[in-house]
Structure formats: C-alpha cells, structure tokens
Design goal:
The protein is an alpha/beta fold. Helices cover 37% and strands 18% of the residues. The protein has 15 helices and 17 strands. It has helices spanning 4-12, 24-33, 50-63, 92-106, 113-127, 164-167, 171-178, 197-200, 244-257, 266-275, 299-311, 330-337, 357-361, 374-384, 397-409; strands at residues 40-45, 68-71, 83-85, 88-89, 132-136, 153-156, 187-190, 205-208, 214-218, 221-226, 229-234, 283-285, 290-293, 318-322, 343-347, 367-371, 390-394. An eight-stranded mixed sheet has the order 4-3-2-5-1-6-7-8, sandwiched between helices. Strands 12-13-17-14-15-16 form a six-stranded mixed sheet. The chain has a three-stranded antiparallel sheet with strand order 9-10-11, covered by helices on one side. Strand 14 (318-322), helix 12 and strand 15 form a beta-alpha-beta unit. Helix 3 (50-63) crosses helix 9 and helix 4 (92-106) crosses helix 5. The protein starts with a helix and ends in a 6-residue tail after the last helix.
C-alpha cells in the first residue's frame, strides 16, 4: 500500500513536463472516472487574489451551513492543504484513495502532477457529497485542468503580467486565457477594474466591478452592493491588505449570483469574512520584530505588498527576505518593493526554475546580502533586526514555505 509521500513521488514522474497545458488528456481520464459532482461549482481565476477569494467563498458558505469542497494550489507545507472538505484538510488516506482512483482510470495517458491532483480532488469531492465546490485555477484558465468542469459561476479577480511563456505577453492575451473559464449563459464575476477587451468579449453573463457590484471602504467598516442588494456596516475581512475588500466583494457577488441555489443570510457572510484564514497573504505574525509573510511573486502583487507595508505603520528598518524563480519579472518585483526596503537578504532557491541570490542581486539597490537558502536569509534577518523593525518574506511560495518550516522548527526564537 502506497503512502501519500509514495504517491506524490509517483505522480511527479508520470509526465516529462511540470506544466503541459491542454484539456484533452485530463478530460479523457475524467470521462473514464465517471465523476459526477452534482453540486454548485465556483471556479476562480486571476493573476492575484484568487486564493483569497476562494478562502472567503469557502468561509461564507461554511458559515451558512453548506458542506464545501475547496481545491487550491500550490501548497505551503503539506499537500493536504490543497484539498479541503467541510473546512478540513483531506486526510492522507482519502488522498491515497483518490490517487488510486485516478491511476485505475488513467491507463497509459500521461498526466502532470497538477492534472493528477485535480482529478483526485474532483473524485474525492464527488464521493464526499459536497454541496458547493470552490476550484482555484492553477495557471491561466482556458487550458487549465480545473476547466474540465463547467462552472456555474466563474470569478476573475485580476489580470497582471505573469507566466508570459504560457499565457502571452500582454493583458489582452492573458485576459483571453483567463476568461476561458467563463461559460455561455452562466455568471462571470469580473473584479478586474480595467478588464481588457478579450475579457469583456468572452461568453457569459458578466457582472462587472463598478457597474453590477462594488464596495465602499468606510474606514472601520465597509459596504457591499451587488445583484442581491446592498449590505452595509460590514466588518473588514480577517485577511489583511487593501485589495481584500475587492476580493471579498467579488466573492459576495458570486454568492449573490447563485443565491437561489445556495441561499445565504447577511449574518452568514459577516461570520465567514470574520473567520476566514489564509496563510502567507500579508500574514503578520505575532511577536517582535514584526514578521510579514506574503507569497507575492509578480509585479502586481509586489505593488500591493508595498502599499500594505506603507499602510502598516512606521518601522525604522525593513529587512526583505526574498527568493524568486527565474521566469518571473525579478527586476519589476524588486523595484516595486524597493521604496519600502532598507536591507535586502536575497536567497537562492532550489530546482531548475530557481534564480540564485547573485541573479537577484543584479536588480537590488543599496544594502544587499546573499544567502544560500531562504532559511539562512531569514535567520540572519532575525539576528539583525531590532524589536521595532519589520522583516518581510516574499518572492515565491517556495520562499515563504521554507521560512514557515524554519519557524515551526525554531519555536524558541523571538517568534
């Protein structure tokens, strides 16, 4: 009997490429598996904000008493994070059973790690008889494995320049790929305020930010308005950051669109937003110096992180612990954060796509130190920082995950 670790090693070897966009192979295996979800499906895509939007949808639906299935990627510390049923991570046993079901149907069809995981999650959701599925797009949308399922409501959170090798070099081409999750005659919530023509021309019943739904930030509280009316006096979501109101409004609009299938009271929405959690999205850890974890790895996300740092109070010094992948806009990301950073602790990452610290240093100005790993960079930052300073860890899920693992294993530190 394979353990979860055995299965993960196995599925990583079943396709020569890490990323191989296209639906033919995965759709064929899905048909063979005869999976029938039989519930409302929300599919969420976007350059940034999709993880937050998914977490809010799950939290509000659960507050309303619905049995949810949530599929997200990538994970930080455990694969189990990717598949949640009724708010709890799937067990090793459940994941092993779902991988076995995929393998039984796969025959000789090659599947990528993500495709394998997507099919396994859908099989598990069908078996667990969930009432609402929330699916996060892995990359793009049109050719992403998640798109084998027809969403009852699709959400597009934002469009920025990222993954240009796969999605194209500009917002029109990227928007075309991301809007591929829309379906004719079904709700498509568009939270990107400057949606390109390729998105506006895509099929679906469009709900546009500012036209069909929106929000007003009233400092200590906020107001949402959308297809099902206006809701005022809302507490800010538990997720921090200026853009989280936009993500919350998109999630609430999606729920408004399916309110006949999944009715929710305003108190359910309030409770869900108050209780939502999502690691490493402007996550401020308790203790001093202040440590902030954020998986920002493209220019749009880096700009949002810089804005959030600016709004989070003065610190004499801000030490940036950063490791990135080579296929990202390293210069653009570091430039966006540069006005907020006094010291750079740049780290090399492992793997074929990783940039090393020297490559990062070519784009950093001022006080720069290089380290072999994010853990070493973070350990040095902790020693360097005074109580009132800030340490911000960003650049990649890999960077943040390594620092989170370091913190878990070093509980005697200041954090």
């Amino acid at each position: 009997m394979k353990s979860l670790a055995d299965w993960l090693v196995f599925i990583e070897r079943q396709h020569p490429k890490t990323i191989a966009l296209g639906l033919e192979r995965v759709a064929e295996v899905y048909r063979r598996m005869r999976v029938a979800l039989g519930c409302a499906v929300f599919t969420v895509g976007g350059t940034n904000g999709k993880g937050s939007c998914c977490a809010m949808l799950e939290a509000m639906l659960r507050a309303g008493g619905y049995r949810t299935g949530l599929y997200t990627s990538p994970h930080l510390l455990r694969y189990n994070e990717r598949v949640r049923i009724a708010g709890a991570e799937a067990s090793d046993e459940a994941l092993c059973a779902s991988f076995a079901a995929v393998e039984a149907a796969r025959a000789h069809t090659p599947l990528t790690y993500f495709e394998y995981g997507t099919l396994a999650a859908l099989w598990l959701f069908a078996r667990e008889r969930i009432e609402a599925a929330v699916l996060e797009v892995g990359l793009g949308g049109r050719l992403d494995a998640v798109n084998i399922v027809d969403a009852h409501c699709a959400v597009l959170t934002s469009i920025g320049i990222d993954h240009v090798d796969y999605l194209g070099p500009d917002r029109e081409s990227i928007g075309r790929e991301k809007a591929g999750i829309f379906r004719p005659g079904r709700a498509a919530v568009i939270a990107e305020p400057m949606a390109p023509r390729s998105v506006l021309d895509a099929p679906g019943v469009h709900y546009l930010l500012g036209r069909d739904f929106g929000y007003a930030d009233e400092r200590s509280q906020w107001t949402y308005w959308g297809p099902a009316g206006k809701r005022g006096g809302l507490a800010h979501p538990a997720l921090r950051g200026a853009l989280q109101l936009r993500n919350a409004a998109a999630a609430m609009c999606a729920l408004d669109c399916l309110h006949e299938t999944l009715p929710l009271g305003v108190q359910d929405m309030r409770r869900g937003l108050a209780e939502v959690t999502l690691p490493a999205r402007f996550q401020v850890l308790p203790g001093r110096p202040q440590v902030i974890l954020d998986v920002a790895h493209n220019v749009q996300a880096a700009q949002a992180l810089a804005d959030n740092l600016g709004a989070s109070g003065f610190a004499p010094r801000t030490i940036a612990v950063c490791g990135m992948l080579r296929d990202k806009d390293i210069a653009g990301v570091l430039a966006a954060l540069a006005p907020r950073v006094t010291h750079w602790h740049l780290a090399s990452l492992g793997g074929p796509r990783a940039a090393n610290a020297d490559e990062l240093a070519e784009h950093a100005q001022g006080d720069v130190e290089r380290f072999a790993t994010p853990a070493e960079a973070f350990g040095a930052a902790l020693k360097r920082a005074e109580a009132n300073d800030k340490i911000v860890v960003f650049g990649s899920f890999l960077t943040v995950a390594e620092v989170m693992a370091w913190l878990k294993n070093n509980k005697t530190s200041k954090h």
